[in-house]
Design brief:
The complex is a heterodimer. Chain A has helices spanning 2-17, 28-33, 38-67, 76-98, 100-106, 117-129, 133-161, 173-188. Chain A is mainly alpha-helical. By secondary structure, chain B is α+β, with helices and mostly antiparallel strands. Chain B has 4 domains: 35-89, 3-methyladenine DNA Glycosylase II, Chain A, domain 3 (Orthogonal Bundle), CATH 1.10.15.40; 97-192, Alpha-Beta Plaits (2-Layer Sandwich); 194-264, Alpha-Beta Plaits, CATH 3.30.70; 267-325, 2-Layer Sandwich (Alpha-Beta Plaits), CATH 3.30.70.20. In chain B, the strands form 6 sheets. Chain B has a two-stranded antiparallel ribbon with strand order 1-4. A two-stranded antiparallel ribbon of chain B has the order 2-3. A two-stranded antiparallel ribbon of chain B has the order 5-8. The chains are: A mainly alpha, B alpha+beta. The A-B interface holds A 62, 66-67, 70-72, 75, 78-79, 82-83, 86, 89-90, 93-94, 96-97 and B 3, 6-7, 10-11, 14-15, 18-19, 21-22, 25-26, 29-31.
Chain lengths: 196, 326
C-alpha cells in the first residue's frame, strides 16, 4: 500500500508540481512550435509520452545493468541518446504509416523529439532519483503526461487567443511567451501540495 | 584498457539491438511511395531555395507529381529540368523563359554622395532602419550586401564601387535577393532583355541631378523615343515593360544621363534582298511600319522610318533580310 501511495505521489508531483515544461523548463521548443492546434498538440504529446515511457524502461536497464555494473556511467549521455533517437525513428515510421495527415502536421518537430531536452532530462533524472523499475516507468510516463498537459493547455489558450484583441507589438511569438510565463506562474501554485 | 573494451562492447551492443529493431520496424511500417517523387527530386537542383513557393525541393517534387505544381515550377532548373520532369510525368513542359535578377540602381560610391556616417550593424536592413541609409538618394542601393547573403548560388558580389554585381551565368532567378533587399530595387527580368533602366528614384529630376550622376531625371525622352511604347513615366521614374520591349536600344542612345544601359547588339544596317517571297511577315512585325510592299513581291525598308530594331530579321522565314551589327 505504501508503495502504491509512493507511485501515485511520483505521478502527481511530476505532472503538476515539477511539470517538465512549466517548472523545469524542458522541452520548450515543441511546446511553442506545435501548440497552434489542440489536436496536433495532443498527438505530439502522445508521441512524446510514448518515447518517454519507452526511454525510461530502456534507460533503467541500461543504467543499472550495463553502465553501473561495468563502471561506465560516463557513457550515460551517449547511450541514452542512442535509445531516444531509435525510439523517435520508430514513432516516426509508425505515424507515417498510421496517418499521413498527422505526419505532415507534426512536420519537422517529429524528428526533433530526438533533441527534445525533456526526454534526455527525464532519462538523466532517473539514475539520480534512485527509483526502482516500476517507479522509473511511472516517472517516465508521468513526464510524458506533464508535457502533454502543458502543450495541450497551451494550444487551447492559443486557439482562443486568435479571437483576442492583442496589441500589435505583442502579436505572434511575444504573446505566446507571455502566456507561457503566466502558465508557469500558475503552476507554481501547486508547489507545497505534497512533499516527498 | 578494460574500460575501453566494456565501452565499445556495450555501446556497440545497444546500437546493434536498436538497429535490428528499427530494421524490422521499417519493414513492418513500410509506406508505399510514388516512385516518381524520388525521380523528380533527383533531377531538381537540390538547393532548397524555396523559389518555387514550396518548403524545399522534396515538397516541390511531391507537389509536381500530385499535379499541384506546374512542371516548369522550378525557376532555378529552368527549361532543362522542366523538360526532364515532363518526361517522367509524361506531360509537355510549357517553356518558361528564365528570369535573372537585376539591381535597378547604379549609384555607387563614385556616382552618389554620402550624407552621413554609419557605424552600426553592417547589414542593409539595419542601415535602412536608421533613417533610410547614408546615401543622399533615398531610393538607391545601400551596398551592405544583404542580397549577397541571401543568394544561395554565390552569384552576387559587391564590387569596388559598393554596388552588387550579379553574375548572369550563376543567377538562377530564385528571387531570394529580391526579398532580401530592403529598398526593393532588385527585380527579376527575362534574361533575353538587353535594355534596362538602372534607377529606382522617384525624386524630382532636379534633386536626382544633384545627388546622382546616373539617376533617372524623369525627362521622358525615352518614353517618346520608344517605338513600341514599352517605357512609361511613373512618378518621375522611367519604367520599362519587358514584355513589350523589342531590344532595339534606342532608349539607351537617347538617355541624357546614361541611366539606361543597352547590352545587346546594335544594328548597323539592314536590308531586304531578292530572296524575299513577299509573305508580309516582316511588314506586319515592324513596330514603326517602315516596311512596304505588295503580297508576293519583294518588300522594301524605308530607311527614314526604320529604327533598326532587327525584329523583321528575326521574323523572316526565308532568310531574305541581311543584317549587319556594329
Amino acid at each position: 500500500m505504501a508503495e502504491l501511495n509512493y507511485i501515485i505521489l511520483i505521478f502527481i508531483s511530476t505532472v503538476f508540481i515539477n511539470n517538465f515544461v512549466l517548472s523545469r523548463f524542458l522541452g520548450i521548443c515543441p511546446f511553442l512550435g506545435v501548440s497552434k492546434k489542440v489536436e496536433t498538440a495532443f498527438s505530439m504529446g502522445m508521441a512524446t509520452t510514448f518515447v518517454m515511457t519507452m526511454t525510461s524502461v530502456a534507460t533503467y536497464f541500461i543504467n543499472n545493468f550495463i553502465l553501473e555494473a561495468f563502471n561506465l556511467t560516463f557513457l550515460k549521455y551517449v547511450s541514452f541518446i542512442i535509445v531516444i533517437a531509435s525510439l523517435v525513428q520508430l514513432v516516426e515510421m509508425f505515424i507515417k504509416k498510421a496517418s499521413t495527415v498527422l505526419y505532415k502536421a507534426l512536420g519537422i518537430y517529429l524528428p526533433l523529439i530526438t533533441t527534445n531536452c525533456a526526454i534526455l532530462g527525464m532519462a538523466l533524472l532517473i539514475p539520480l532519483s534512485g527509483y526502482n523499475f516500476i517507479e522509473s516507468v511511472v516517472f517516465g510516463f508521468a513526464a510524458g503526461v506533464s508535457f502533454t498537459l502543458a502543450i495541450v493547455l497551451m494550444a487551447g489558450l492559443r486557439e482562443t487567443l486568435k479571437f483576442a484583441d492583442v496589441p500589435e507589438a505583442l502579436q505572434g511569438v511575444p504573446i505566446t511567451l507571455l502566456l507561457a510565463g503566466i502558465m508557469a506562474m500558475a503552476f507554481m501554485g501547486f508547489s507545497g501540495l505534497i512533499s516527498i | 584498457m578494460q574500460t575501453y573494451i566494456y565501452s565499445l562492447v556495450s555501446m556497440g551492443g545497444i546500437a546493434a539491438i536498436m538497429a535490428t529493431g528499427l530494421g524490422i520496424a521499417s519493414r513492418a511500417f513500410y509506406v508505399e511511395r510514388d516512385e516518381r517523387i524520388d525521380k523528380v527530386e533527383e533531377i531538381l537542383p537540390g538547393a532548397n531555395c524555396g523559389a518555387c513557393g514550396y518548403a524545399g525541393c522534396s515538397s516541390f517534387a511531391e507537389a509536381v507529381v500530385n499535379g499541384k505544381a506546374a512542371v516548369n515550377g522550378c525557376p532555378v532548373g529552368g527549361e532543362k529540368v522542366a523538360a526532364q520532369i515532363g518526361d517522367i510525368l509524361g506531360q509537355e513542359a510549357s517553356s518558361s523563359e528564365k528570369n535573372i535578377a537585376r539591381v535597378l540602381c547604379r549609384g555607387g560610391l563614385k556616382e552618389t554622395k554620402k550624407r552621413s556616417e554609419y557605424r552600426g550593424i553592417q547589414t542593409c536592413k539595419a542601415v535602412e532602419a536608421v533613417n533610410g541609409g547614408i546615401k543622399t538618394c533615398q531610393y538607391g542601393c545601400l551596398g551592405y550586401g544583404d542580397c549577397v547573403q541571401a543568394c544561395p548560388f554565390d552569384a552576387i558580389k559587391i564590387n569596388a564601387n559598393g554596388l552588387p554585381e550579379i553574375d548572369p551565368d550563376k543567377c538562377t532567378g530564385c528571387g531570394n535577393c529580391v526579398k532580401a533587399c530592403p529598398k526593393g530595387i532588385i527585380k527579376l527580368v527575362p534574361v533575353s532583355c538587353e535594355s534596362h533602366i538602372y534607377c529606382s528614384s522617384h525624386d524630382a529630376g532636379k534633386t536626382v541631378r544633384k545627388i546622382c550622376e546616373l539617376g533617372c531625371i524623369g525627362c521622358g525622352l525615352c518614353v517618346k523615343t520608344c517605338p513600341v511604347d514599352a517605357i512609361t513615366l511613373e512618378d518621375n521614374l522611367a519604367v520599362i515593360d519587358y514584355e513589350k520591349c523589342i531590344n532595339c536600344g534606342l532608349c539607351a542612345e537617347k538617355c541624357p544621363t546614361g541611366t539606361i544601359n543597352f547590352t545587346g547588339k546594335k544594328v548597323k544596317s539592314i536590308k531586304i534582298t531578292e530572296d524575299c517571297v513577299g509573305c508580309t511577315l516582316c511588314a506586319r512585325s515592324c513596330p514603326v511600319d517602315a516596311i512596304s510592299g505588295e503580297v508576293k513581291e519583294q518588300h522594301e525598308i524605308d530607311p527614314e522610318k526604320c529604327i533598326k530594331c532587327g525584329l523583321c530579321y528575326e521574323k523572316c522565314n526565308v532568310n531574305a533580310i541581311e543584317i549587319e551589327y556594329e
